[in-house]
Specification:
With 92 residues, the chain is of the alpha+beta class. The protein has a single domain, classed as Alpha-Beta Plaits. It has three helices and four strands. The strands form two sheets. A two-stranded antiparallel sheet has the order 1-4. The longest helix has 23 residues. 17% of the residues are buried. Bound molecules: iron/sulfur cluster. The site of iron/sulfur cluster has 14 residues, from helix 2.
Length: 92
């Protein structure tokens, strides 16, 4: 694994850990805001397929929909974060 890939993987793993921490240690705490790193995004569309309430494709890259409800869609959000081949979905 290259250092750049490891950095992206490590960053995303921390995002997932933070998400899980929030989920289990403070159920009432909101999940926070998420973003797609457009430089890392490969434009594969997997996140949109897994979680269309949160992600949409624009100009060949994924982006977070306006008004996306992360708490309501946390199951598919977690799936998309874990499935993203570029680890481009990160917490702000
Ligand atoms: S799954 Fe990852 S690489 Fe694919 S479109 Fe979504 S953010 Fe981009």
């Amino acid at each position: 694994m290259s250092s750049q890939n490891y950095k992206a993987y490590s960053s995303s793993s921390k995002s997932i850990q933070n998400l899980e921490t929030n989920k289990f240690s403070s159920p009432k705490k909101k999940l926070g805001e998420w973003q797609v790193n457009k430089e890392q995004c490969l434009g594969c569309g997997l996140c949109e397929s897994l979680c269309p309430e949160i992600f949409e494709m624009k100009d060949g890259k994924s982006q977070i929909k306006n008004g996306a409800d992360f708490d309501k869609n946390k199951t598919c959000l977690i799936e998309a974060v874990e499935a993203c081949p570029a680890k481009a979905i990160v917490r702000q």
